[in-house]
């Protein structure tokens, strides 16, 4: 797991009692509603060794009075039982925020609004009386090192964490006309309001090669525009101009949903309610007459392969660390690159 930033990743373990009570989906919904991105849900039949590693700190604590019985309690609670795993993505500090969300170990001491406070039906006192582990539904990683260990425990040491899942990530390019008209915030707000998580906003001064790579299809199909010099059009529209780029995260299918949201490439044909339909002020006819590109505010990646290429074009291949999916409530932090 070298190279994975576990400051931004946490493992969610929905325990056997959560599965038995049919609460797994509700727990993960509460995590999502708190602003975290939840992915990679997986159902597992727990093996004894996995539970032993998960509770290693308790098992190795020689000061515990119930040390003699603890291994039996753990085996009774977990071995051969179904659990559900998921990954939560956010910014550094995710582990402490998730621990607050799940609440106190003893459900009777967990406050309202926490997962254990709202959903649990057990108590530490009853568990001790019945000689078993307390049933408190869910565990999340304590810290980055805990997340690293728990990922290997539950997902398997041979399974590489996919930090660049372009099925769930689209690149949003706010074009020079959006920047010039002061519409970047409006465009990104519309995308966020549609359910995408926006992060890693950057301002870029466009280099010619970036416009050429981004519009490679126009350059290759230049015969379709016999009256226009496409390379010159691209340079005039983009080279040395300011654009704003951001990443939009969501579930698989995000690319199609965002393409519907931005609307037809000709703003005069874009439906009301789309970004280009509501905010565009240009037309394909005017662009053809003036032998230039149409000003249509925004681009989003067509599909996962395009998102991969768009990321390399606008962020640079060496900035892959940005691809860790963020918490939905992370504020935009603009930076400038040239």
Automatic annotation (TrEMBL):
Pfam families: NDK
GO molecular function: nucleoside diphosphate kinase activity
EC number: 2.7.4.6
Cofactor: Mg(2+)
Domain of life: Bacteria
Domain Nucleoside diphosphate kinase-like: 11-162, 167-319
GO biological process: CTP biosynthetic process; GTP biosynthetic process; UTP biosynthetic process
The protein's enzyme class: transferase
UniProtKB keywords: Kinase, Nucleotide metabolism, Transferase
Family listed: Belongs to the NDK family.
PANTHER family assigned: NUCLEOSIDE DIPHOSPHATE KINASE
Annotated protein name in UniProt: nucleoside-diphosphate kinase
UniProt source species: Streptomyces gancidicus BKS 13-15
């Amino acid at each position: 797991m070298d190279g994975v930033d576990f400051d931004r990743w946490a493992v969610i373990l929905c325990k056997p009692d959560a599965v038995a009570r049919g609460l797994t989906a509700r727990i993960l919904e509460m995590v999502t509603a708190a602003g975290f991105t939840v992915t990679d849900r997986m159902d597992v039949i727990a093996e004894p060794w996995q539970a032993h590693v998960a509770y290693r700190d308790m098992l190795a604590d020689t000061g515990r009075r119930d040390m003699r019985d603890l291994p039996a309690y753990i085996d009774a609670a977990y071995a051969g039982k179904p659990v559900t795993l998921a990954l939560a993505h956010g910014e550094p500090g995710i582990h402490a925020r998730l621990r607050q969300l799940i609440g106190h170990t003893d459900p009777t001491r967990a406050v309202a609004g926490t997962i254990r406070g709202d959903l649990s039906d057990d108590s530490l006192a009853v568990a001790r009386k019945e000689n078993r582990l307390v049933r408190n539904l869910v565990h999340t990683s304590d810290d980055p090192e805990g997340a690293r260990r728990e990922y290997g425990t539950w997902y398997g040491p041979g399974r590489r964490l996919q930090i660049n899942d372009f099925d769930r990530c689209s690149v949003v390019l706010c074009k020079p006309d959006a920047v010039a008209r002061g519409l970047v915030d409006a465009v990104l707000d519309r995308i966020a309001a549609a359910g995408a998580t926006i992060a890693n906003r950057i301002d870029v001064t466009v280099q010619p090669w970036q416009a050429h790579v981004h519009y490679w299809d126009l350059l290759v199909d230049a015969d379709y525009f016999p009256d226009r010099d496409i390379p010159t059009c691209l340079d005039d529209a983009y080279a040395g101009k300011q654009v704003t780029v951001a990443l939009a995260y969501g579930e698989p299918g995000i690319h199609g949903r965002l393409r519907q949201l931005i609307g037809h490439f000709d703003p005069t044909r874009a439906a009301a309610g789309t970004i280009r339909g509501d905010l565009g002020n240009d037309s394909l006819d005017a662009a053809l007459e003036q032998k230039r590109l149409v000003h249509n505010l925004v681009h989003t990646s067509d599909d996962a392969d395009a998102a991969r290429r768009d990321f390399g074009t606008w962020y640079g291949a060496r900035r892959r660390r940005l691809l860790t999916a963020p918490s939905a409530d992370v504020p935009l932090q603009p930076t400038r690159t040239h």
